[in-house]
Design goal:
Blueprint lengths: L6 H15 L3 H11 L4 H16 L1 H9 L11 H16 L5 H15 L2 H17 L12 H9 L3 H23 L5 E5 L6 H10 L3 E4 L6 E5 L1 H6 L1 H4 L3 E3 L2 H9 L7 E4 L6 H9 L5 E6 L2 H14 L4 E5 L11 E7 L20 H18 L3 E11 L8 H10 L3 E3 L16 E4 L1 H4 L4 E8 L1
Helix pairs in contact: 1-2, 1-3, 1-5, 3-5, 4-5, 5-6, 5-7, 6-7, 8-9, 13-14
């Protein structure tokens, strides 16, 4: 098959491939970038079209359905995705003229099918252009869940969850924040370079640098491609990690020379951060069920110049035969719904039944982990999601079922939520400008 040089054509092919295989978006996108021949400028447009169309898919389908006499599910994948990509440009990409979005979509429809499909595509997208300022959604007052779901492109069950936790206004603000392009955060490897020197170096490379909002070793950087391609990354001067994840490491409040267990370690962002906070002194035993993923932990440790991490394959839901230690981290398997800015496809991959299964796993891991904490030691539970089932319910269940554990305050400089106690915290994109995250700290009596 010849290489594709048209970013819109490749976007449609990628979206159809994603639906056919159900692979993860990042992996499919990277594969198509490697196998085809786009200019650097077109790579940016291609990535924006794929990510944006996946993110706004429910909204786009709603809009298209207003103007299509044929049910969308009866359209061939390439035809439907051509319409979606065209509508995304019209509704959400100001830098692309509406006429260009329509004309390019018509060319693709003719390429994939025939002139009749091209005419169909032209008619629908011209209606989107004509009526884009008057698109009506179900009334918010009467049908708030449906309104927010269609307007901001989230599953209704997610909207219902968020309304139950934070109310209507905050849910709308959260939807808006979740649909914004993510910032790129890097964690300075303070074992090798100071924050000031890394800032100076990146600025010399043409990178715009700002300090993190909370964690002292985090930098907010752009453009992303310069940071991701710079040799300093492969040299281990910094690590790509969202600030919310960095805060989870600080929550454990490790000390240099301690023994630490990280029971769900891969790919090693929090593990290597803990080693950094410990000044690479002491010992960290890092577990994961997947030995291949542990190899990534080892590689990250080598690149960052860390020597105190030992990896071991193990299922944290089962007994691991460990002696009690002063610090234990459970960064539990979860639905990942807090990371939707980086992984827009995850909103379409999860369901309520899976949350129940995940909660059972999370409880088992915490139950097992409690045996490995020494008296006076800390146990941290964290997730990168925003569901109450996986976060507050699990944390409260643990305290209620373990009379030998009490809550332990988080560092006082952490992001604040007035409605939450001092021992757990939900990091919210619309309040804290971080990925959605949850962290709770327990101390063994």
């Amino acid at each position: 098959m010849s290489k594709v040089t048209n970013p819109r054509q490749l976007a449609v092919l990628t979206l159809s491939s994603l639906e056919a295989t159900e692979d993860f978006l990042r992996e499919v996108l990277d594969l198509h970038l490697r196998e085809n021949d786009l200019s650097s400028l077109d790579q940016g447009l291609y990535t924006e079209l794929v990510y944006g169309t996946v993110r706004m898919q429910k909204n786009l389908d709603y809009v298209l359905s207003l103007f299509s006499k044929r049910p969308l599910h009866k359209l061939k994948p390439n035809v439907l995705n051509t319409l979606r990509v065209g509508a995304y440009q019209i509704l959400y990409l100001d830098r692309v003229p509406d006429s260009a979005a329509v004309n390019e979509a018509v060319k693709l429809a003719r390429l994939f099918e025939h002139q009749g499909v091209a005419n169909f595509t032209n008619a629908i997208l011209r209606q989107v252009v004509k009526n884009q300022k008057q698109i009506a959604y179900p009334p918010f007052e009467a049908r708030p869940v449906e309104h927010l779901s269609l307007r901001y492109s989230f599953p209704e069950w997610v909207i219902e969850q968020w309304i139950g936790q934070w109310g209507f206004e905050e849910t709308e603000a959260l939807c808006l924040a979740m649909n914004q392009p993510p910032e790129l955060h890097v964690r300075t490897n303070t074992l090798r370079i100071t924050q000031e020197k890394l800032t100076d170096y990146l600025e010399q490379q043409g990178v715009h640098v700002e300090s993190g909002r909370y964690a002292p070793e985090v930098l907010r950087v752009k453009p992303a491609n310069k940071v991701l391609q710079d040799s300093a990354l492969s040299q281990g001067l910094y690590y790509i990690q969202d600030e919310s994840s960095v805060l989870a490491g600080h929550a454990l409040q490790v000390q240099s020379g301690q023994q630490v267990y990280d029971l769900c370690s891969a790919p090693g962002g929090k593990t290597t951060h803990l080693a950094q906070l410990m000044e690479d002194r002491g010992g960290i035993l890092a577990f994961d069920v997947n030995s291949a993923r542990l190899a990534v932990v080892e590689e990250n440790a080598r690149r960052l110049g860390i020597s105190i991490i030992t990896t071991k394959t193990g299922d944290a839901t089962q007994p691991l035969g460990l002696k009690p230690a002063p610090r234990v981290l459970v960064d539990a398997p979860c639905s990942g719904l807090g990371t939707m800015r980086h992984r827009p496809d995850i909103r379409w991959r999860k369901n309520l039944h899976e949350l129940e299964q995940l909660q059972n796993i999370q409880r088992k891991i915490l139950d097992t982990a409690s045996n490995y904490v020494q008296s006076g030691g800390f146990l941290v539970y964290s997730t990168c999601t925003l569901t109450e089932q996986e976060n507050q319910e699990v944390a409260r269940w643990f305290l209620a079922s373990r009379n030998n554990f009490v809550s332990q305050p988080l560092p006082s400089w952490f992001p604040q939520n007035r409605e939450e106690p001092d021992w757990y915290r939900t990091f919210l994109p619309h309040r804290h400008h971080l990925d959605g995250f949850f962290v709770a700290v327990f101390r063994k009596l």
